Amino acid sequence: xYPKTFIFILFIILxxxxxxxxxxxxxxxxxxxxxxxxxxxxxMMGYANLDQSTAGIHFRLRAxxxxxxxxxxxxxxxxxxxxxxxASQLVTIKVLERLSxxxxxxxxxxxxxxxxxxxxxxxxxxMQYVLYSVTSLGFIPQSFDAIVTAIEMSILQAHQNxxxxxxxxxxxxxxxxxxxxxxxxxxxxxxTERERYPRDVDTxxxxxxxxxxxxQKSVGAFTWFATHxxxxxxxxxxxxxxxKGAAARFFEDWFTSTSTNSTTFYAQENTSTSALxxxxxxxxxxxxxxxxxxxxxxxxxxxxxxxSQFVGAFCQSNVGDVSPNVLGAFCTDTGLPCxxxxxxxxxxxxxxxxxxxxxxxETKSTKIIGERQFLKAVExxxxxxxxxxxxxxxxxxxLNFTNIDVKLADNQTAKTCPAALGAxxxxxxxxxxxxxxxQQGDKKINEFWKRVRDFLKKPSAYxxxxxxxxxxxxxxxxxxxxxxWAPAIVPIQILRIGKLVILSVPGxxxxxxxxxxxxxxxxxxxxxxxxxxxxxxxVVIAGLTNTYSQYIATPEExxxxxxxxxxxxxxPHTLSAYIQEFNKLAESMAKGLKIVDKGPSPPDLSSIQxxxxxxxxGESLPPGIKFGDMKxxxxxxxxxxxxxxxxxxxxxxxxNPRYDLLTxxxxxxxxxxxxxMWVPAYDDDDFSLIFKWNVDNSSNNGLASLEWExxxxxxxxxxxxxxxxxxxxxxxxxxKYFTGASSAFTVS
Length: 748
Description:
By secondary structure, the protein is of the alpha+beta class. The chain is built from 15 helices and 37 strands.
């Protein structure tokens, strides 16, 4: 962060955060838990790139939750913002089962929402439908369990932290964090409709601020804003929360550094790993963050202590056609802009790549887009004055989306279709190009790909006609071997907090699709609410929530068949069906009616999931070397010290990190020498410290590379790297833990 910006924000926080006493309206609670999955050898969820498998950690993933209740025995909602590509039906099912065992009927499918941030840099293998697990070689239990546990624990924390408090809402425009990646499709929407909006993306950010009713201190903030989690490219192999995860990290670090004073304890040198972990407790706020022991013997440099934790979350909205690569898309061979209608270069989709603001450094782009969201959130957070009051309410149903009767505006009727993907899907986007030989906007499939398609499953005549003008490339809704390829039954949900209404959608609505849904639902609420809703009612879309069913384009955008339209599973009337069914829920909520028919429950396919990725087989090292030994120690510059912005690094002999995920722990630490003691300053949850893991080709043994970009905020002094890990001798052996440390180096 720039020094002037930091000083300004510090001034604002001191003026605003702890002032303005309020009258508590609700019970509020927030929670956060580590959801980081396997950091080696697991295909990432998002780009569907077979070559993109995890090989380290940029920074850790988290599940962040808030609960709002009218009273201890009154209505309540729980909302989880998950650092993942999207929600998963199977994850939702298993989370609800665990919550039922803990709380009975208190938290259930009606009042719990799980929304993915849409990072494309998280481990895959946690979905239940074949299409979404092909590249991950099926189901990955370790990845799945990390996510389910994190969601459960974040809700548990929020529940245990429930206290009297207030919720404030604020909105504002952020204009430089997203561009439309399918602008030609957007132009298919009616001119009169487009003229109502200044941009072809939504720029509105909506923020909730949670304030403790007793201390008047803020305990959390959640925002909704639409931009894709694709600042990190399809070539990236580091687990990362992308720009939204970065924004959350910056927000939480900033709030903690400006509002707490940590007590200092020191970890002594030359102690055992377990003793070190027990004795390492906290660190001065100026040098880093507190740390805590974990059962897996990694240790975590935390931002806060337990229940006092501030949670800042950046949630996804109608993100379908919004890219964070704001410089535009250019041809890699010529440097010229890509073809406007097809986003290709001389007919080749793979040459057209979007550029982020830090181009060509994708990590820098992630940081910049994250900072832009973070700074806007701080502005809204410190100026939030509108207090939410009124009912907590919710509605939820399941829909078989393959055959919904839709009433259109001209009194005609239509139907949705079984799920299918078009040729434009295979072309990918400017954020992540797809297969060679396809272009966005393709309405024909060549004979070779038709034969490949028909070998898998030839689409029925009904499907071809229903999906028109989409040329059916993969008829996922008609494919059931070895189990279903795509969802047929999907949930929709409305959550209400006074005059805030959250629409939980199970996919990626494009900009205009989201606008139409929000406006229609708001009108329905006002028309049927008997004064309970008005033009000041806020309606937000929570994208990729509870399950995933890909994209939702407008019927007009569907005609061009760019990527978003080709990925609109249920045909040209998908959006109309969503609007129709959401309006039914909205009318029910406005009139205070109960839902009589909640629809067919989705299947639980956990018992038939296929897992093709083997577990690590066990590890050994050449004689004379042990895990935690250094292969390459610090290389000190000629000056004898490192400056801010330099990148000291070290390499340790290290086994596969999949033996233990070190949940709420860390693989990498930068320690600072204070009073002849080494104390933790940064860990692998910090944006500046990167943990990489790969295999040494010369010995076929694993290596852990730790790289630290010395931040401007780092204190001058003496530092070293420390690495934590776990190993097994054979696949059936017990897990053993180790640590290693580098030589000291100076930052000046």
